[in-house]
Amino acid sequence: MTALLLLVMVLGLLLLRQPLVVVLLSVAAFVQMVWGKGQLDYIVEDMWVALDKELILSIPLFILCGNVMTQGSTAKRLVRIVAAITRPLPGGMAVATVLSCGVFAAISGSSIVTMLAIGTVMYPAMRAAGYDNKFALGTTMSAGTLGIVIPPSIPMIVYGLVTETSINDLFLSGVGPGLLILVVLSLYAMVMCRKMPRETFEWSELTTALREGVFAIVMPVILLGGIYSGYFTATEAAAVALVYACFVEMFIHHELKPRDFYNVVLEQSKLGGSLFPVLAVALSLNIVLIEHRIPGQMVQLMQSYISSPLMFMLLVNLLLLVVGCLMTTNEAILILAPLLAPVAEAYGFNKVVFGIIMILNLEIGFLTPPVGLNLIVAMSAFRQPFGLLVKAAVPFIALMVFCLALVVWQPWIAMYFVTGKV
Q: pTM here?
């Protein structure tokens, strides 16, 4: 009866369009009053404990680093290098868009930042080269979602925080699925644009692009190399990447002025002001749920109705695809990951594998209405009607669902770089 009352309260708050932080605070208060010791001040104590983690600092640092490079010329220089390599391919410019998003994703950790950084350069270029409008939009929006799959990824950090999973393992698990999506999207672009005129490969263009973009290329090498070699933690890597990006953009490329940096930090502060209260309450609620063994009770309840791991995974994927249409990625992870990850583990799914499957599901949510963030941002960035953007995304959603199904069927795609085994 109390669980039903809690569900009704949550649905009522959502119908009243209350902010997520209000919903989570209400749930935490309800759990403390009904199953806990009835002392609401424990929630505040748990919030302080939850936020007392160095790893949380990496989230604003990665976002700020991506925004610095977007304001500067790093993205343009990366695009020029990749475009010089893909010139002779059918649909070379579309392939360059996909690959450039993959490279930039290895720096920014954010889907929206990746899409804007590459899309603002490549979408007008594709249109000027005669590419179909819907295809150009779909390519840009779908390739932008790689920002949360290819490491470093902010949703992976959030998932690792709420489920106590190794961030390095999560980062490594994103490499295989990220490469799979890169290949599938690139092949699709080559097939769809096979009749378009190709350009000739020019060594002079490539050498010029490499010379001008050498500092941009070094960035992901420093970032990922430092993490996987053990020289940096994720937080230290984010700080090093930010310092490097600021130095390159201010003193080498001369594209970023101190005044511009102030504006970038101001925008980042607004984002942090909305994200961190939600993160604090969600982590606090997670502590309460674990103390009262709620995940364990959920495992017993699920196993009494569903005996097959395959059926469980099918139902979870359907749930996450629907949730991705209605919630942002971080919101969905904060609410569902603490509950679903222990259940998945009980069915024999490694928490790292389940994490990448969850993120792949929610990645598709960036392209699905009504809360598809890439659709909403693209609507204002590219000045296109929302309906057209939804239609443009449909074939790419199908491709990404195919990639998701492959990873679920063959989890070694995600785990190969973690364990080294197929």
A: 0.82
